[in-house]
Hints:
Layout: E1 2-6, E2 16-22, E3 29-30, E4 35-40, E5 45-49, E6 54-59, E7 66-68, E8 72-78, H1 105-114, H2 132-140, H3 160-171, E9 182-183, E10 186-187, H4 204-219, E11 222-230, H5 232-247, H6 254-268, E12 274-276, E13 281-283, E14 289-291, E15 293-295, E16 298-300, E17 303-304, H7 312-327, H8 333-336, E18 341-344, E19 364-368, E20 372-379, E21 385-400, H9 406-422
Parallel strand pairs: 14-18, 18-19
Antiparallel strand pairs: 1-8, 2-4, 2-7, 3-6, 4-5, 6-8, 9-10, 11-21, 12-13, 14-17, 15-16, 19-21, 20-21
Helix pairs in contact: 1-2, 6-7, 6-9
Amino acid sequence: MAIDVTLPQLGESVFEGTITKILVKVGDVVKKDQALLEVATDKADSELPSPVAGRVLEILAQVDQVLPVNTVLVRMEAGDFPATAAAPVAAPAAAPASAAPLATPSARQAAREHDVNLAAVSGSGDHGRIGQDDVLRAASAPAPAPVAAPAPVAAPAIPQARAQQLAATINTGGGFPVPGVGYGAFKVPAYREQPGDKVVPFTRRRRITADHMTYSKFTSPHVVTVAEVDLDKVSKVREANKDRYKKEGLSLTMLAFVVQASARALRENPTMNARVLDDAYVEFKDINIGVAVDSPDGLVVPVVRRADELGIRGIVRGIDDVAKRAKTGKITIDDLSGATFSVTNPGLKGNLFGGAVISQPNVGILRMGEIQKRVVVVEGPDGEDQMAIHPVMYLALSYDHRIVDGVAANSFLWRVTEILEKADFEV
Length: 427
């Protein structure tokens, strides 16, 4: 019986994948769950397992192809076959001549907007993948001239109908800046290489991150509010317990306390645990906190699920687990999907505070600042104010002003601060 193996939807909001490696060939006999291909998405890289034991009849995908979900990648014949079986099988199907060149979604959109033929564009990404900047460079390139002198880069050539459409859009208030090109009377000057300059092509992960951050800033009206947190009590709790955790192979960090405080505050302030729809918004039942960690391919945001139901120990285990797998390249799509809020920590070489860009489709992200010892005013035993030296940190909350107003944001941040300053934790 023939079985079609299709590209599944490998995570929330993932609608296409890039074939990075083919692990079998036509005629191979494979076991159930044996990896057939490797697929990269904007979330992570994954192996696609065989749903049955059987033999590979056809391989319909090629390395570096960008394919939508539900595309048939491999055709299998289910059954038990000898490992040395060499029955006649169909040859691998060639990619259709009309297949689109390897390009990111943002590049394809830019190509449509600027009437650029992707087949004529040289890609600067991994394996020659075409990025948005490649398309914009092609759109702004001058026509070939018989003279040898370098000509300045001209504005993108736009057909008359398209120019009229853009003009109408701008005149009605719907204009938008074009990255690498400009907006209105402002034009981005062309780059001219100088001796010693180093041009660094975007990696696939960096391009995905760049597109995500640009989309987030364009979509969500960001507002940032900052709280100063006295960590004296919670630092003492951490110092009293960190060696005990260390003996168990766990790292009791301040991040764990901030994640739990955030989870509890989100339960009390559900507007921060939400996402925006077309003409409404949804407040999530589950509180799943994405925690930004570094990986060999760049920053990723694995998820600690139902964080409000976990104690400090559970959160520490969750963070340690996903952080270790991220750093060893073993993170999965499921690990990175479903966050309803995010917490980011700049690490040991941090800074006072900063406003992070919201990770879509969340409506908020909390950024930890660097912990510094500072002089603070505290109430003494006799009720008089006195000075003390305490560890202090700034927490900066970036929130989406489409649905989160200042009252809700400040209430959430105030509650996080209160939980941390009271050290209201069971460790």
